[in-house]
């Protein structure tokens, strides 16, 4: 860290502070300084301090009112920690708080350093990353960029991923890893585990093998936190994160032809354990996100179905590398001569297959991604059998599912429910879909608002769906 060689520092407390060539306002400006910048104090003249900026390799003068001078002697460590405690929960002061945390770690004897400063350091770095990822104006961009540079000068590492057409910035979590490695309390471990396992901070470009290893690590980190002594809202946060991670693990295990029922059931249990009366308002979106992720993989908890006899059914066979081919068969058409066939790189949940009474349509859940499940509809028309693939939303795959909910007797209509994140917000709708065009004939936010849905919803769907949570 930049403070390593300094005994007396001046920590800049204001943004857009000028480092000037001489101790007067009219002197040439050498550099623009930001809160959290640390300067070596070399002297004092009038109401200015003579300083040296090691980061920019510039000397000059700065108004004494724009900085706080601080000794880095061991006796000063408690005062520095007190400032860190104040700043750790002050939005907008992350760069300043990080500089004080760095000063404390320099001043304090090694044996006196516990998990608290690392907890604070990680909290401020994580909040700074969240602020930088949020939508903002041009003026905010300038300030945040400067604060990120200040944080970087203290060794705070950030990673950026492109999501929804913008950059998602994430703290690399080094301070939180230290918290988990030390004798920290349950609250500190909970904050560290939640920060280290944020789903939006998973690199979308990692390989399936890397993702599998990462999810196993995320599950282990979350399971190290004891819930007993935590407040209820924080227990909820951990249960929601665990549910999301175990749903992803169930998907990965199924794709690798490994037993996945235990992982899927764990995801369902964690979600069921959430106390909905104690969900904090800022966590409402996290609850929906976790529920949709678990819903996408919920069929992994169901056993492989037994052959259904001579009626309409689907059979799967391996296709090209990584592919699964789905064939629709009946009493007169076996898998060598199917009614219709299609291949996919997604997971085919055969337990989800549902056939209408006329044996003229079959609905099947297919999951191409761990958080995205589509509905395949096999149906017979004037020109024979066709397959329509219905996605949860028209946007690029993100978080969502579309699931079959029932057949409407005596008509070519199907009931379905979809829930997906669109433009950053979740939308859930219960729908009546026409089989001939696959258009949504009617939709509502509540199934009770649709007479057909209320009357003909499938009992098996009602037992297993998470859309009615």
Give a verbal description of the structure:
Helix 5 runs antiparallel to helix 6. Helices cover 33% and strands 29% of the residues. By secondary structure, it is α+β, with helices and mostly antiparallel strands. It has 3 domains: 1-162 and 170-184, SH3 type barrels, CATH 2.30.30.40; 198-301; 308-464, no CATH class. It contains 12 helices and 20 strands. The strands form 5 sheets. Strands 13, 14, 15, 16, 17, 18, 19 and 20 form an 8-stranded mixed sheet that branches. Strands 6-5-4-1-7 form a 5-stranded antiparallel sheet. It is elongated and about 95 Å long. Strand 2 and strand 3 form a beta hairpin.
Structural class: alpha+beta
Radius of gyration (CA) equals 29 Å
Total domains, how many?
3
- Report the CATH topology name of the largest domain: SH3 type barrels
- N→C terminal distance: 49 Å
The stretches of 5 or more residues where confidence is low (pLDDT under 50) are none
Question: From the coordinates shown, what is the CATH architecture of the largest domain?
Answer: Roll
The 3D shape can be described as elongated
**The CATH class of the largest domain:** Mainly Beta
- Tally of extended strands? 20
What's the rounded overall pLDDT mean? 93
What is the number of helices? 12
**How much beta, percentage-wise?**
25-35%
CATH superfamily of the largest domain: SH3 Domains
Helix content: 25-40%
């Amino acid at each position: 860290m930049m403070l390593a060689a300094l005994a007396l520092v001046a920590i800049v407390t204001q943004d857009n502070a000028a480092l000037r060539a001489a101790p007067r306002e009219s002197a040439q400006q050498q550099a623009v300084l930001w809160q959290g910048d640390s300067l070596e104090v070399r002297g004092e003249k009038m109401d200015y301090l003579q300083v040296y900026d090691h980061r920019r390799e510039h000397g000059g003068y700065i108004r004494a009112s724009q900085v706080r001078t601080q000794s880095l002697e061991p006796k000063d460590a408690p005062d520095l920690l007190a400032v860190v405690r104040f700043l750790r929960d002050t939005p907008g002061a992350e760069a300043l708080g990080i500089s004080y945390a760095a000063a404390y770690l320099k001043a304090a004897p090694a044996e006196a350093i516990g998990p608290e400063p690392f907890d604070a350091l990680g909290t401020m770095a994580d909040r700074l990353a969240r602020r930088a990822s949020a939508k903002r104006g041009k003026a905010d961009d300038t300030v945040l960029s400067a604060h990120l540079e200040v944080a970087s000068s203290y060794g705070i590492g950030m990673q950026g991923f492109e999501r929804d057409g913008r950059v998602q910035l994430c703290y690399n979590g080094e301070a939180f890893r230290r918290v988990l490695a030390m004798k920290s309390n349950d609250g500190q471990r909970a904050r560290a585990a939640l920060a280290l396992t944020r789903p939006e901070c998973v690199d979308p470009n990692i390989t399936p093998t890397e993702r599998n290893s990462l999810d196993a690590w995320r599950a282990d980190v979350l399971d190290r936190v004891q819930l007993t002594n935590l407040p209820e809202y924080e227990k909820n946060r951990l249960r929601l994160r665990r549910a999301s991670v175990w749903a992803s693990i169930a998907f990965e295990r199924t794709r690798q032809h490994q037993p996945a029922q235990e992982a899927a059931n764990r995801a369902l249990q964690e979600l069921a354990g959430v106390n909905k009366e104690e969900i904090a308002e800022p966590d409402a979106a996290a609850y929906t996100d976790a529920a949709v992720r678990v819903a996408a993989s919920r069929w992994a908890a169901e056993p492989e179905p037994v052959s259904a006899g001579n009626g309409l059914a689907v059979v799967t066979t391996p296709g090209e590398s990584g592919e699964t081919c789905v064939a629709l068969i009946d009493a007169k058409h076996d898998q060598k001569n199917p009614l219709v066939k299609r291949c996919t790189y997604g997971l085919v949940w055969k337990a989800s297959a549902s056939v209408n009474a006329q044996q003229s349509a079959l609905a099947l859940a297919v999951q191409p991604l761990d958080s995205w499940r589509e509905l395949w509809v096999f149906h017979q028309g004037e020109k024979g059998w066709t397959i329509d693939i219905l996605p949860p939303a028209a946007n690029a795959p993100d978080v969502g599912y579309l699931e079959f909910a029932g057949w409407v007797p005596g008509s070519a209509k199907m009931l379905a429910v979809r829930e997906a994140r669109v433009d950053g917000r979740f939308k859930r709708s219960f729908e009546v879909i026409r089989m001939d065009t696959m258009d949504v004939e009617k939709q509502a936010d509540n199934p009770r608002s649709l007479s057909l849905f209320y009357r003909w919803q499938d009992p098996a769907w009602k037992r297993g769906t998470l859309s009615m949570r």
